Amino acid sequence: MNYPLTLAQMLEHAHRIHGDKCVQTVLPNGEMHRYTYAALYERVKSLANAITELGIQRGDRVATYASNTYQHLELYYAIPCIGAVLHPLNIRLSAVQLAQIVHEAEDKLIFVDGAFSEQFGDLRNKIGCKRIVRFNLMPADTDTSYEQLLGEAEPTYTWDIQDENWAMGLCYTSGTQGEPRGVLYTHRSMFLHTLAVNQADVFGLTEADVVLPLVPMFHAMAWGLPYACMFAGADMVLPGPKPTCLADLIAENDITVAAGVPTVWAKAYPDLQRRRQDISSLRRVIVGGEAMPSTLIEAYEKELGVEVCHAWGMTEMSPTGTCSKLRGTHQNLSDAKKWDIKAKQGRPVPGVELRLAAEASTSFTELPWDGETVGEVQVRSPWTASRYYKSEPTTEHFTADGWLRTGDLATIDAEGYMQIVDRAKALIRSGGESISSIALETALLKHPRVLEAAVIGVPDEKWGERPLAVVVLTPVGAECNTRNGFSLFPDQIPNRTEEALRGQLAAEFPKFWIPDRFVFVDEIPKTSVGKSDKRAILGMFVSTGNSDLP
Ligand code: AMP
User: Is the distance from CB of 321 to CB of 314 less than 8 angstroms?
Assistant: First the structure.
C-alpha cells in the first residue's frame, strides 16, 4: 500500500486514538491552560482555515516567534497540514540575525506570542510590513488577534497533502561564518523521525507518559517532541514564555519524562535533589544539544533515581542521530562504567547511518570503529538534509557520495557508541545554542583598534562553553606589561577598549554571543599555515592555569 507519510495522518491518529489526552500550558500570568487533544484538533482545523483565508498557499513560509505553548503546538500542525511551511524563529537571536533569516525565508506571515512583544519590536522595525498575528495579546497590541481569527474561521477542513515529499518545516542553524543556514524538512522525513525517536531504545515515549519539553519549540523542532508526544498519545506540559520552577512543574503535574539541554539539568539539580520526594514521578530525562558530563549523569541516576537518555543530533538531522542507552551486556558493569558509557553520545538511532572519515580529507577514507581513532562523523538517513535551503550542496558540508559532514570529531567503538571529542567547525556551544567564532572575529576586526582577534570556546560549568576573545590591539600608544606569558596593556586602556568592543558586538549579536572575557595580547599563536591556532590558545587558558587572566 502506498500510504502517505504526512503530519495530517499523525494528527488524525492523535485525535481518533488519543482524543482525551491533555496538553497543559503555563500561561504568562502563571495560571495553567488545559485542554484535550480533541479540543486542540478542532482549533487546528479552524486555524487551517484562518491561515488559508489570510492568503497563505502551499509552499509559503509562515514564521512563529513564540516559546512552548499550546498556540505554538496548534501552529506546528495547522501550518504544515495546509501544505505551507512552518518556520519557527529562534527568539534568542538578535534582531539583525533574525531579519536576515526572515528575508531569506521570505516569510509571508508571522505568529507572535504577545509575551515577547517588546523584543519582537526590534525585529519588526527591520523587516518592514509583514502580516503579524498575535496570541497572548497585551492590551496595547493592535495586531490581528489569534483568538479572533480562530473564532471567525470555518470549523471544518479537509487535509489535502498530495505528496509526502512536500516541505513541512524550516529551521535555521548558525553557520560557522555566522550566516544563517536553513534546513527544510518534509512530511515524510518528520513522520519517519517521529517513528524513530518513539522507539523503546530512543526516547521511548508511551501513552502513559506526561512529557515536559523544556527544549524550545524555536530550536531544532524541539527535538521532534511536539510530534512524538502526540503520536504516542502522551500528555504534554508546556512551560510557556516565562521561567517557572522546574521542581514545582514536575511535582504538580506528575511529569514522567522531561527534555532539555545539560545546562538546564545542571542548574536544576540542587533544587530537584532537595525535593527528591516531590519529583518521584520523573522516570527519565532526555538530554542533548551538548555533552552531558558523566558526573551529572551519575547525580541524576544515583541520587534522584532518574534515567538519563543522552542524545546527539543536529538541526540538519531533524535533529536526532544517536542515543546513549546501555546494552543488555552492560548490566553487570560497575556503575561508574555504566555512566561513562552513557556520557558517550551513543549508538545510531535505527535508520541513521554513521561513518568516521579522516579529518579534513578531500577524498573519503573510512576510519576504524576501535574507540580510539578520531575522525569526522558523517551521516545519512531519511531525516537528514542533503543540502541547505536555497543553496546547492557544497563539499564543505556534503560529501561527493551524499553524506552530511557534521563537523563533529569523534571516536566510534566496536559496539557502535560514538563519543564526540572535538568540533572541526568553528562553532562554540553555549547552553545548547551555537555561537560562530568567525562571525565574532570578523566583527571585532571592524574596530579600528583591533589588529588581530581570535575567539575560542572555554569550558564553563554552567553553560558548557563560553566565548573568550583574544585580541591584539594596534600598537598606537600602547604600553605593555607582562603576566603569565601574555603582554597586557595598562588596565585603563583595555577597559575602555573592551567596553567599545562589547558595544560593537552588541549591535549585531545577541547577549549570549558576547565573550565573557577579553584578553589583550601581543601576539596570537599561529598554525604552520598562519591561521590562529585555537587549540594552542585554548591550552594557554585551560591547562596552564591562566584561567584567572582578565
Ligand atoms: P544544533 O544544530 O544547533 O542542534 O547543533 C548541533 C551540534 O550540537 C552538533 O553538531 C554538536 O556539535 C552539538 N551537539 C548536539 N548534541 C550533542 C551532545 N549530546 N554532545 C555533544 N555535542 C552535541
Answer: yes
Distance between CA 284 and CA 497 in Å, rounded?
47
- Do 318 and 224 meet the contact criterion of CB atoms below 8 Å apart? yes
Task: Find where cell 572519515 sits.
Answer: 357
Contact 72, 215 (CB under 8 A): no
Which residues of the chain are under the pLDDT cut of 50?
477-492, 544-550
Of all protein residues, the one whose alpha carbon is nearest to atom 10 of ligand 1 is 314
Cα 304 to Cα 261, 268, 368: the distances in Å are 18, 12, 37
Cell digits for 239? Answer: 512551560
Q: Could you check whether the bond before residue 4 is cis, i.e. omega within 30 degrees of 0?
A: no
Distance 379 CA to ligand 1 centre (A): 13
Asked whether the beta carbons of 51 and 84 are under 8 A apart, the reply is yes
Pocket of ligand 1 (CB under 6 A): 173, 220, 288-291, 310, 312-315, 319, 345, 406, 408, 420, 423, 429, 434
Residue with CA nearest ligand 1 atom 12: 408
Cβ neighbors of 289 (< 8 A, separation 6 or more) are 215, 261, 262, 429, 432, 433
Q: Residue 223 Cα, ligand 1 centroid: separation in angstroms?
A: 12
Q: What is the CA radius of gyration of the chain?
A: 24
Q: HSE (CB half, 13 Å, CA atoms) of 162?
A: 2
Which atom of ligand 1 is closest in space to residue 310's alpha carbon? Answer: 19
131: how many CB neighbours lie within 10 A of its CB?
Answer: 15
Best probe residue, ligand 1, of 310, 312, 322, 354 (max atoms within 8 Å of C-beta): 312
> Would residue 204 be called left, alpha or beta, if left means φ above 0 and alpha means ψ between -120 and 50 degrees?
left
Cell of 114: 504577545
**What is 192-219 written as a DSSP string?**
HHHHHHTSTTTT---TT-EEEE-S-TTS
Q: Any idea what DSSP says for residue 332?
A: T
Give the number of the atom of ligand 1 that is nearest the alpha carbon of residue 291. Answer: 20
Residue 90 C-alpha cell reads as 529562534
Which residues on adjacent β-strands are paired with residue 286? 259, 309
Which amino acid is located at 356 in the chain? L
Question: What stretches of 444-484 adopt beta strand conformation (E)?
Answer: 450-460, 464-473, 481-483
Strand-pair category, 235-238 with 22-26: parallel
Cβ 377 vs Cβ 347: under 8 Å = no
Give the helix/strand (H/E) hosting 493: helix 492-506
From CA 209, how far away is CA 207, in angstroms rounded?
6
Residue 176 pLDDT:
75
- Dist. CA 290 → ligand 1 center (Å): 5
Q: Residue 428: which residues within 8 A CB-CB, separation 6 or more?
A: 434, 435, 436, 437, 455, 456, 457, 465, 466, 467
Rounded to whole angstroms, the Cα distance separating 56 from 58 reads: 7
- Claim: this prediction has a pTM higher than 0.85: yes
Residues with Cβ < 8 Å from 4, sequence gap 6 or more? 161, 163, 164, 187
